[in-house]
Amino acid sequence: MILLYLKLFWTFFQIGLFGFGGGYAMISMIQGEVVGRHHWMTNGEFTDIVAISQSTPGPIGINSATYVGYTSLTNAGYAPVWGALGSLIATFAVVLPSLILMLAISRFFMKYKNHPVVEQTFMGLRPAVIGLLAAASLLLMNAENFSTPGQNPWQFFISVGLFLFAFIGQQVYKMNPILLLVLCGLSGLLLL
Amino acid sequence: MCPGSILYYIMWELFKTFFHIGLFTFGGGYAMIPLIETKVVDEKKWIDREMLLDLIAIAQSCPGVFAVNISIFIGYRIKGTAGAVVGALATSLPSFIIILAIALFFQQFRENEYVDRFFRGLRPAVVALIAAPVFRMGVRAKITLRTIWIPMVSAVAIWMFGVSPIYVILIAGLAGYAYGQFIKE
Fold first, then answer.
1. A61 at the B interface (CB within 8 A)?
2. Residues A58, A7: one domain?
3. How many domains does chain A have?
4. Do A78 and A140 belong together in one domain?
5. Which residues of B touch A20 (CB under 8 A)?
6. Across the interface, do A16 and B98 touch by the CB < 8 Å criterion?
7. Do A6 and A60 reside in the same domain of the chain?
8. Which of A31, A147, A183, B120 is the most buried (most CB within 10 A)?
């Protein structure tokens, strides 16, 4: 069991260290390690993790580390309490590289943010980051989140309506984003 | 650190804020940006919009969980290493608790029809909340008619051609440096 904990720690430390490019890129890395290399769970069980991560709050990297940590122990026949410890170890391991790296970078940035080279670099970066944000929202405007007029017209039009409501509520009326999320979720519960 | 002291108060505020953000971040790291904007920039005034943009670039070009990277940076800015640890902990804790509870008690959570319907309504709102800051932050980044092609080209490269955001950040950073060094002077 100790060996399994060590393996979990090492695997998720590596995923935290080399997981570039956000949640979904990380997911495929975790899948490769957890299903392909270590056989801690089946592909079907892994798909469940992705689905659960999408329908619960929180970063996908944290969600899947927590779930894999638990499932890998219980699949190996250990009691749930050891599974919970596995969750804790995997989650800690995935955050640790970020903590070390970001601390170093934050220190550097705070010290040199007024240095001309750093300033010029960030002058170029800022407009590109706006593009990054635009791309992130464009990528999410897909059938999975909105359905399509052909597939399910009712869901599609309600989704577009909720999108416009949340967009205008946030942009024009500066409504609290959490309130908007809850309102749209409740509308979904009633209408979809 | 005793209750009542200023340090205790700041740490508690930091923890509460990021716990809140972690709890309501649905659908990946970018979904936390509007929440950070409201809570950290407008309400608490811990950082300004310009720094938030710099921070997104930094967090995106570092490995690891985007949302955690952002909270570490903001925590560090407010209260050094201890602040960074509190930020990372507070952002991870809600998902840790929820997922562990699901794994322990409700394996059927996903098949629940009401949960499913709630999320179908929630998802378009998540997309809208990610889209809204694009325009607000565009103003802060001092984008003019002369520079508007930069965000447009970046967005199209990522959205239509599947270019990794890391390359976009690398190229934009180098171009900004080169422009400042060789053209402007």
1. yes
2. yes
3. 2
4. no
5. 63, 164, 166
6. no
7. yes
8. B120
CA angle A86–B109–B103, rounded 5-degree value: 10
Residues A21, A99: one domain?
yes
For residue B125, the number of C-alpha atoms closer than 13 Å in the C-beta half-sphere is 28
Side chain identity at A115, as an amino acid letter?
H
Q: Does residue B43 contact residue B116 with C-beta atoms inside 8 Å?
A: no
Domain shared by A93 and A158, yes or no: no
Is A129 contained in some domain? no
Q: For B29-61, how does the pLDDT look when each residue is reduced to its tens digit (9 = 90+)?
A: 778 888 888 899 999 999 998 889 999 888 887
What is the per-residue pLDDT across A54-79, written as a single tens digit (0 to 9) for each?
677 888 889 889 999 999 999 999 99
State the Cα–Cα distance between residues B121 and A184, nearest whole angstrom.
Answer: 5
Contact A86/B at CB under 8 A = no
Distance from CA of A36 to the nearest CA of B (A): 21
Chain B residues with CB-CB distance to A192 below 8 A: 117, 120-121
Is A72 in the B-facing interface, judged by CB distances under 8 Å?
no
